[in-house]
């Protein structure tokens, strides 16, 4: 039976990865044509990690908050160590002053969010605060730069705006139905995939400790997998800043927006909050390690890649060895 649930986890991952890609790729085009505000789009696309959000909300609604917490923390560790490690192995990943500023502003936000998570409880009010924290993060960057932040999937927004302007200049008819249906299909795929993953983990074990371990490792890596692929593909194409911005935006998004929405769906509360303490410290440490390695030469190189990729299995072994 465990093998069956394991196969369902793989199916869930496939649905989430496809759904997340379809969502991000077509949301910009659909929303621009529907005249959704640019700021609303930036909030959706800056660090957009709908796969983590869908999984956390599904876990919250199914009353397994351990999976929601573990997924967010595990995914953040994976994107810092694996996604950037893979990208830096293929090509140097520069931390421009712009992206480094995003990362440095993200540090105190991550620390504040960690403070909320530390006791293993997030109420609906605290969830609203975390969402507000993320909105403030994007708003400050927008105000300083006078343009949408170069985080996550916002490149899709710029492409959509350019395409929309070309259509208007050429007098072309605006068609939104195809983009909207693909976005809807992507959302449905993510919802289905997240429900499969959460239910599979819940069936494999009802023990909170085991659920957190599975979420930190298996679920966290699975939901972060799309960003690993993004880092690999963008580094191959030479669009290296996109990989870095994707990680920075996603890291901040996960500890604020993802957990905030999940807490609003149903307040999060685990029995033993100490199970999260070491993983939270590791998560902040992984983010700090990335910033430190990037600050040394202004970019992540192959040497940094070795450090990051080597650290991930060691981190997992340490986390899984926790009682």
SSE topology:
Layout: H1 2-33, H2 38-45, H3 50-61, H4 65-90, E1 93-94, H5 97-117, E2 121-122, H6 124-145, H7 154-169, H8 177-204, H9 208-237, H10 240-265, E3 268-269, H11 277-297, E4 299-300, H12 302-321
Antiparallel strand pairs: 1-4, 2-3
Helix pairs in contact: 1-7, 1-8, 1-9, 3-4, 3-8, 3-10, 4-9, 4-10, 4-11, 4-12, 5-6, 5-10, 5-11, 6-10, 9-10, 11-12
Subcellular location: Membrane
Membrane topology: Multi-pass membrane protein
GO biological process, one term: transmembrane transport
Description:
By secondary structure, this protein is mainly α. The chain has one domain (2-321): NCX, central ion-binding region (A middle domain of Talin 1, Up-down Bundle), CATH 1.20.1420. It has 12 helices and 4 strands. The strands form 2 sheets. The protein has a two-stranded antiparallel sheet. Strands 2-3 form a two-stranded antiparallel sheet. α1 (2-33) packs antiparallel against α8. The protein is globular, with a radius of gyration of 19 Å. The chain starts with a helix and ends with a helix. The model is unreliable at 37-43 (pLDDT under 50). The chain crosses the membrane at residues 69-93, 99-118, 125-144, 180-202, 214-232, 244-264, 276-296, 302-321. It is found in: Membrane. It is a multi-pass membrane protein.
- Give the amount of beta strand, in percent: under 5%
Instruction: Please tally the helical runs, counting DSSP H or I stretches of 4 or more residues.
Output: 12
As for the CATH topology, it is: A middle domain of Talin 1
Largest sheet: 2 strands, antiparallel
CATH superfamily: NCX, central ion-binding region
């Amino acid at each position: 039976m465990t093998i069956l649930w394991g196969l369902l986890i793989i199916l869930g991952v496939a649905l989430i990865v496809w759904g997340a890609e379809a969502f991000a790729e077509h949301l910009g085009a659909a929303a621009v044509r529907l005249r959704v505000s640019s700021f609303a789009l930036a909030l959706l696309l800056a660090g957009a990690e709908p796969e983590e959000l869908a999984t956390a909300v599904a876990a919250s609604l199914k009353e397994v908050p351990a999976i929601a917490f573990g997924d967010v923390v595990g995914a953040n560790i994976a994107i810092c160590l694996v996604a950037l490690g893979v990208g830096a192995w293929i090509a140097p990943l520069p931390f421009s002053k712009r992206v480094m500023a995003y990362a440095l502003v993200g540090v105190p936000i991550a620390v504040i969010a960690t403070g909320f998570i530390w006791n293993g409880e997030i109420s609906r009010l605290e969830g609203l605060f975390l969402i507000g924290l993320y909105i403030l993060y994007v708003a400050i960057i927008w105000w300083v730069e006078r343009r949408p932040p170069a985080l996550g999937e916002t490149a899709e927004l710029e492409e959509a705006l350019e395409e929309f302007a070309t259509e208007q200049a050429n007098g072309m008819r605006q068609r939104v139905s195809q983009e909207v249906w693909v976005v809807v299909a992507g959302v449905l795929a993510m919802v289905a995939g997240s429900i499969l993953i959460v239910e599979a983990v819940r069936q494999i074990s009802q023990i909170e400790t085991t659920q957190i371990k599975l979420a930190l490792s298996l679920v966290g890596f699975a939901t972060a997998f799309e960003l690993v692929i993004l880092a690999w593909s963008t580094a191959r194409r030479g669009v290296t800043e996109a990989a870095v911005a994707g990680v920075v935006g996603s890291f901040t998004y996960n500890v604020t927006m993802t957990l905030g929405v999940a807490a609003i769906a149903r307040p999060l509360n685990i029995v033993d909050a100490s199970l999260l303490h070491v993983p939270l410290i590791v998560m902040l440490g992984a983010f700090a390690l990335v910033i430190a390695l990037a600050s040394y030469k202004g970019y992540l190189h192959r040497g940094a890649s070795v450090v990051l990729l080597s650290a991930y299995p060691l981190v997992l072994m340490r986390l899984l060895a926790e009682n």
